[in-house]
Structure formats: structure tokens, C-alpha cells
Please model this.
Amino acid sequence: MRDLPTALIERARSYVDGTVDPAVPRDAATVVLLRDGASAGGLEVYLLRRVSSMSFAAGMHVFPGGSVDPRDAEHAVAWSGPAPAEWASRLGCDERLARALVCAAVRETFEESGVLLAGTSPDTVVADTTGDDWEADRLALLDRSLSFADLLDRRSLVLRGDLLAAWAHWITPEFEPRRFDTRFFVAAMPGGQRTRHVGGEADRVAWVRVADAVARYERGEMPMLPPTAATLRELTAYDEVGAVLAAHPPIAPVTPRPVIDGDDLRLVVDGPDGEVAADAVLRSRA
Model:
């Protein structure tokens, strides 16, 4: 569990006392980008470390992701894979939000890793996104001078929603001043593309074996928010990306709640057998 700033602990105490109203969470998407390790080295995950000056999750190791841009659902883009109605059923939301979440997942992955889950046809994927023209488009997405839908339309690209699978749904605890209602997706690193350190919100990026990431978190060497740690723990049950994409675990919203023990704050989730630490949540894979 991360060390929480004193101010945040006091805010949690005020929330428990009933003197702080919860902020409204923003819809967001995050993508667990995976690849099979070389020479049976085990499943690998792409992680970014957020810069220490960030107002949310500073210094934490995270997956690519961010808030939904309202324009992500402004019009139907060329689409491959499950229809928005199917995504809506899986994600537990309406079709407009489902379309926005899938678009946000693909857009944020491109913005934060340079990887684009789109192609010129429903069964292809862009081969290379490292050119200057691609970088100009990525920066335009970041400053919101270009919408993701317009990028896809202008380049005649099909969004490859079939390369994504829904994994989890976490909502930031109610005492936090900035809150996100986040759907977690898993995706395979597309062949031919490569991740790159694009700077911005991250000061370090790396491919890490899932098991190693969990071990480093537990040793206190790789700080993470509870949803990140819990997701990685779940992924240790899988040996290859294909098995992860085929898993389709049950999805229900999880909102950790604060428990004050003297001067300490714990984040817990209520499970069938009582309280468990939020970073140790393991959902049934039945």
C-alpha cells in the first residue's frame, strides 16, 4: 500500500467524520499493454512512472490511461470488433459512454506509449508510428487541438476494438479530491510497433515481467495505486497474452473505502469473507 500524504489522511478522516462531500468522478480508461516474454520469460507489462510534480498519483507506476475526452464519442468512427452495444453490456454503461471509453483507451495508449491500436482495414494494424507526422498528431491529441475521431478519419483508419478486452472497473475512493471512474482494459502489443518514451506525464517507462512488478511493489521498490497492484496480481495467474485476452473475468465497480486506525489509514474493499486490503483484491475468474 502506498504511503499517503498527511493532508490526504486528514481529508480521509474528515470524510469518515462526515464533513467532506465526495467529488464527482470523471470517466476514464486505462490499458494494460501486454506482450509475451522472450524465451518463455513470462508475461510482460508496460508501466510508466508518473512525474513527482503531478497532482494525482505522483511518483506512482501506472498503465497508460486518462480521462475521456467528450469528443471521443462525438461521432461513429470506423470500428472493428464488438459493437458499442456489446461493449456497453460488458462495461455496465450506455452505448455512448462505451464508445467513448473504447476510443479513450486507444487514444490514451497512443498518447502515452506511441502504440496505436488501429489499422487501414479491420484486420490490419499500423506498422510504424515513429515518424515526425505521427508525433505531430500525438502532440495535437495531447493539447486537444485534434480529436481522436478526426485523426482516424483523416488517416482513413479503423479502430481495432477487437484488440482490447475489458478487465476491471475501479472508482477512486470518495475522500480523494480528484476522482476517476475508470474502466481497465487489457491489450496485446501489436506486432511491428514499438513503445517509446514520449515524456510528458512520465519520467520513466519500462517493460517489466508481471511477476517481477508484483515482487518489486511488495518490496516497496515500485509504488503503485491499489488498482494497479491488484490487476498485476491477477495477471500472475496467466502465462501468455492470449490467455489473458480470452479470460473475460466478471466486472463490477470497486470503490476502496478508508478505515482509520488511530493515526493510520487503510484502504479496504468489502469482500464475501469480510474486509481485504484494496491492493490485494483478487476477483473470481469463473
Notes: The CA atoms of residues 22 and 174 lie 5 Å apart. The first strand starts at residue 26 and ends at 36. Helices lie at 6-17, 84-91, 95-113, 132-142, 148-154, 210-218, 226-235, 241-245. The chain is about 30% helix and 25% strand.
